[in-house]
């Protein structure tokens, strides 16, 4: 048996190193938070049976083996299923004859098409409208996209984690929502926690604003730190946790299990997204970030987008409500807890919650 000690900024980073060096068969013997050069980091001791060490395996597979591998693995199946879905939609499309709708309904549908609302949503709306030429599109949209404004009254779970792709605006929206909440309820005991690792930029931002605004600050390097935070959680009314952007194939469910988040009933995870990712990326995010605790979507960088159909597409695909809308990089007046009216204004008028209209 070969044993090795790994150090990294977070448990996630340490496990990635282990997988790369010792392979997926490696067994974790210990996992703890330690201090290195004054910075907290994660130390993991892992072991692997010398017989299955990846170094013993052939290093460069042949081209045929690579192709064979790609055809065998599940990505191939996923792609095939997504192709089948595409073909079903292509067959359905000619059936979606907008001329069978009333002129007002047709206009609304044409508008949504221009906003890059996808075929699945358009088909759903069409089926709804075709039943009654008098019906407005709003009830159909409302049954599809909900909002649940981010504030302590609506969201009374103690723990809130902000997840999403790298650079989506997780740290910024977390800080801005915490400051909003503190301003509305000065007595509220809020804790900002970072799971980003000792050297991350987001960590410094959270620490800075926590100190400036009288909020508590905690770091989560391993599951021990989260267990500690759970123990002292009765001291806080709201704990906002900044998660790192998950790299490679790591999923939110894997990450949550690693840190002891899984199954917690008092934890809501909010997915932070920008409206201008591609359709394929959105599909991937739905897979990567699926979790029982996923509770809402926060849309950021609305001021950099030119269409907002993805908000409807995501609501339809995920069933999640929208909890906040961010529309500027500054700290002030740049995030708003979402409501339905804001969503319809964005979608039909390209009007941001701050009042500006996107070209
Ligand atoms: N224009 C604009 N910029 C934004 C908005 N929200 C965040 N940003 C900017 O986007 C950049 C990334 O934001 P972060 O909050 O650091 O994103 P993150 O998801 O925490 O990034 P990582 O932790 O690196 O994964 C920063 O420069 C923010 O100022 C927004 O609504 N509009
Ligand atoms: Mg961040």
Shape: flat
Determine the CATH topology of the largest domain.
Rossmann fold
Gyration radius, rounded:
23 Å
Overall residue-averaged pLDDT value: 88
Bound molecules: guanosine-5'-triphosphate, magnesium ion
The proportion of strand residues reads 15-25%
Question: What is the number of helices?
Answer: 13
Major sheet: size, sense and barrel closure?
Answer: 8 strands, mixed
Quickly give the structural class: alpha/beta
The spatial strand order of the largest sheet comes to 6-5-7-4-8-9-10-11
Structural domain tally: 3
Describe the structure in brief:
By secondary structure, the protein is α/β, with parallel strands linked by helices. It contains 13 helices and 11 strands. It folds into 3 domains: 2-56; 73-142, no CATH class; 159-349, P-loop containing nucleotide triphosphate hydrolases (Rossmann fold, 3-Layer(aba) Sandwich).
Which labels suit this protein?
359 residues, alpha/beta, Rossmann fold, 8-stranded mixed sheet, 3-stranded antiparallel sheet, flat, binds guanosine-5'-triphosphate, binds magnesium ion
Q: How is the topology of this model organized?
A:
Layout: E1 2-8, H1 11-22, E2 27-36, E3 39-48, H2 63-72, H3 74-92, H4 103-114, H5 119-130, H6 137-142, E4 159-163, H7 170-184, E5 190-194, H8 201-213, E6 216-219, H9 223-231, E7 238-242, H10 252-259, E8 267-273, H11 279-288, E9 294-299, H12 309-318, E10 322-326, E11 335-337, H13 340-349
Parallel strand pairs: 4-7, 4-8, 5-6, 5-7, 8-9, 9-10
Antiparallel strand pairs: 1-3, 2-3, 10-11
Helix pairs in contact: 4-5, 7-8
The structure holds guanosine-5'-triphosphate (GTP) and magnesium ion.
